[in-house]
Amino acid sequence: MIGRIHKISGNSYEVRAGDLLLRCRFRGRLKRERLHALKPAAVGDDVEVTPVPGGEGVIERVLPRRSKLSRHDVMRPSVEQVIVANVDALVLVQAARDPEFSTLALDRCTVMAAANGLPCVICANKVDLAVPDLSAYERAGFRCVRVSARTGEGLDDLRAVIRGRTVVMVGPSGVGKSSLLNALEPGLGLKVGEVSRRGEGRHVTSWVELLPVAGGVAADTPGMELFTLWNVTASNLKEFFLEFAELAAECRFRNCSHTVEEGCAVRGRVAESRYRSYLEIMETLRRARGERG
Ligand code: GDP
Ligand code: ZN
């Protein structure tokens, strides 16, 4: 039968197949063949399983992926680590307040989406506390939703985003990702942390898990703010600011970096905050490359 990996703990793969929930292991042979890979499969992978008695199963093979969200492996930065496979969209969550809305963090996430070839939706939570200004994003063509996990405002818009899809919730801790999933699916009972826990290096929940939410599937990603930009370099960064790429066709310079060139068609025409993020992310990428040599 065909199922989907919802969770991985050590060598144990939790596979959902229809109404069944199976604790699975890889067939030994397959495991050896895939030893070169970091993990033989990722959360979100579709797999062929043979059920065995006792709610367990054996994974026979991994089906081809249609998409993936990756980062650099923490221990081996040149190695790709797939965080979630078969993703339809990223939901980029920021809080209107508490913690303060960060355009830089959000823009980094839009780059991550674009570099992984994934669409994204911007989700401003905690609109009960403040009115977020998303005009720059709306002008740049991003789909935006404004929600409050606390009051329930806007949750139907978020439901419509998730229904029938696999989405990954991405954003700094404390913005309300778990609260939103709980609000959409009260049965989940996800632990909700406190904003004050940020920066302590302690994650309230552990690693990625797929959850059935609002007629779709959502992955919560604790610690996502530390995620690296797989595939992104200082020189290709401009391709992942999608609204820049549209204007770049009008640029006089074929290989314009949109930084120092006189008469650049991009600089000055895109939203200032997006342009500032572009320069800052580029600087971070340059420094990281310098450190790695
Ligand atoms: P996560 O780290 O992104 O999963 O954030 P949590 O879901 O753990 O929420 C962090 C804090 O924000 C908790 O104290 C929540 O009660 C609070 N919170 C979440 N959503 C809202 C909201 O819509 N409005 C307000 N005022 N607080 C919220
Ligand atoms: Zn330019």
Structure description:
- With 293 residues, the chain is α/β, with parallel strands linked by helices.
- Helix content is 23%, strand content 27%.
- The protein is built from seven helices and 13 strands.
- The chain has helices at residues 28-33, 103-115, 135-139, 155-162, 177-184, 242-248, 272-292, and strands at 2-9, 12-17, 20-26, 46-52, 56-62, 68-72, 80-85, 89-95, 120-125, 143-146, 166-170, 209-213, 216-220.
- The strands form three sheets. It has a six-stranded mixed beta sheet, sandwiched between helices. Strands 1-2-3-5-4 form a five-stranded mixed beta barrel. The chain has a two-stranded antiparallel ribbon with strand order 6-7.
- Helix 2 (103-115) crosses helix 7.
- The longest helix has 21 residues, at 272-292.
- The termini are far apart.
Helix content: 10-25%
Average pLDDT rating: 89
- How far the N terminus sits from the C terminus, by CA atoms, comes to 47 Å
Query: Which ligands, by name, code or SMILES, are bound?
Result: guanosine-5'-diphosphate, zinc ion
Structural class: alpha/beta
> How many beta strands in the DSSP annotation?
13
Relative strand content? 25-35%
Strand order of the largest sheet: 10-9-8-11-13-12
Element string (H = helix, E = strand): EEEHEEEEEHEHEHEHEEHH
Determine Rg (CA atoms, Å). Answer: 20 Å
State the major sheet: 6 strands, mixed
Query: Total number of helical segments?
Result: 7
Show unreliable segments: 196-206
Gross morphology: globular
